[in-house]
TrEMBL record:
UniProt similarity note: Belongs to the Glu/Leu/Phe/Val dehydrogenases family.
SUPFAM superfamilies documented for this protein: Aminoacid dehydrogenase-like, N-terminal domain, NAD(P)-binding Rossmann-fold domains
Species of origin: Pseudonocardia ammonioxydans
CDD domains, sorted: NAD_bind_Leu_Phe_Val_DH
Glutamate/phenylalanine/leucine/valine/L-tryptophan dehydrogenase C-terminal domain ranges (all copies): 147-355
Pfam families (UniProt xref): ELFV_dehydrog, ELFV_dehydrog_N
GO molecular function list: nucleotide binding; oxidoreductase activity, acting on the CH-NH2 group of donors, NAD or NADP as acceptor
Active site location: K76 (proton donor/acceptor)
Protein known as: Leucine dehydrogenase
Positions of NAD(+) binding: G180, L181, G182, A183, V184, G185
């Protein structure tokens, strides 16, 4: 199939006729080190959509790794499933994982993957028996365990710095709207509640909302009200694409910082937020804690204290991005892109990789 132009290095597209699954690997950059990024498994409208998603996410991973100071490049895997995961039997799923491992091996270490939407640490355990090019295994299999706590910690650091940038005096008393109460969103909600925030939550799963209301005293709203409910801090922790230029023009909040990838449909949305005076923490910086945890612990051999310190430093990175955006009258996304470009231009930096072999 003919592929559109892209500024990345490699796109691999393969099909498994036995399962009907398509496998796309996008390697955006290996400038700082081997490309790294999770494997997303879901149903797509077509192969072209899967390719576009893999490429977009791979580019975001390049920026994320650069912003996090990790000696890795950006990549992403997308598995376009023939049916929702819940409808696939175990034999089909394992066949899909085996084929994915074979595709990873064909790249010879230029790309390493971990869990993402639709895949889990348990799936990484299976892949690790078939390829060395995987991270994010379960603790039982020798991996670092869930990245959710560190992702949430980094997001909350972004919230705190964003609140300060907006001229607000801490999280206490602020209306914090958390969209998506999966492992990361629920942890962010707990951190916000602990800091005295007035929680507003929503999720497609009513049971998660009930749990947040019972545990944290959160107010529950309908999922369709996320972009119309007034709040001080909007924390998107579900899927991406929430804010377009049109919705950015009306969203009633002061700060936006969340765990969702590719939160904005395009850079024009960031410019709309800038003109409205809304402080936006670019998602690839705010949610970098997960990558820091998985890559740091399993690939680079960092201990828990170093991973925690580097995750907290997400706030420092964002403070510099906010300052640059102010100084040059540009959006925070543009400022973050400038910072990532400088890191990429400087090239690889010496970084401890103790424990990289397993």
């Amino acid at each position: 199939m003919a592929l559109p132009e892209w500024d990345g290095e490699l796109t691999s597209v393969r099909h498994d006729p036995d399962t009907g699954a398509w496998f796309v690997i996008g390697v955006h950059s290996t400038r700082l080190g081997p490309a790294s990024g999770g494997t997303r498994a879901m149903v797509y409208d077509g192969v072209a959509d899967a390719v576009a998603d893999a490429r977009r996410l791979a580019g975001a991973m390049t920026s994320k790794m650069a912003a996090a100071g990790l000696p890795m490049g950006g990549g992403k895997s997308v598995i376009a499933l023939p049916a929702p995961r819940a409808e696939l039997d175990d034999a089909t799923w394992h066949r899909i994982l085996h084929r994915h491992a074979a595709n990873l091996n064909l790249l010879g270490g230029n790309y390493t993957t971990g869990p993402d939407v639709g895949t889990s640490a348990a799936d990484m355990d299976v892949l690790a028996t078939l390829t060395p090019h995987v991270f994010g295994r379960s603790a039982a299999a020798g991996g670092p365990g869930s990245s959710a706590p560190m992702t949430a910690l980094g997001v909350f650091a972004a919230i705190e710095v964003g609140v300060a940038e907006a001229g607000l005096d801490g999280v206490e008393g602020l209306r914090v709207l958390v969209q998506g109460l999966g492992a990361v969103g629920a942890d962010v909600a707990r951190l916000a509640a602990r800091a005295g925030g007035k929680l507003i939550v929503t999720d497609v799963d009513p049971a998660r909302c009930t749990a947040a209301a019972d545990e944290l005293g959160a107010e529950v709203i309908d999922t369709g009200d996320v972009l119309s409910r007034a709040c001080d801090v909007l924390v998107p922790c579900a899927t991406g694409g929430l804010l377009s230029p049109a919705t950015a023009a009306t969203v009633p909040c002061t700060v936006i910082a969340g765990a969702a990838n590719n939160l904005l449909t395009d850079d024009a949305a960031a410019e709309v937020l800038r003109r409205r005076g809304i402080t936006y923490a670019p998602d690839f910086v705010a949610n970098a804690g997960g990558a820091i945890h998985l890559v740091g612990r399993e690939v680079l051999g960092w201990d828990a204290a170093e991973v925690t310190a580097r995750t907290r430093a997400v706030g420092d990175t964002l403070a510099g991005i906010f300052a640059d955006a102010r100084a040059h009258d540009i959006s925070t996304v543009a400022a973050a892109g400038r910072a990532a470009a400088r890191t990429l231009a400087d090239g690889p930096r010496p970084t401890s990789t103790a424990g990289a072999q397993r």
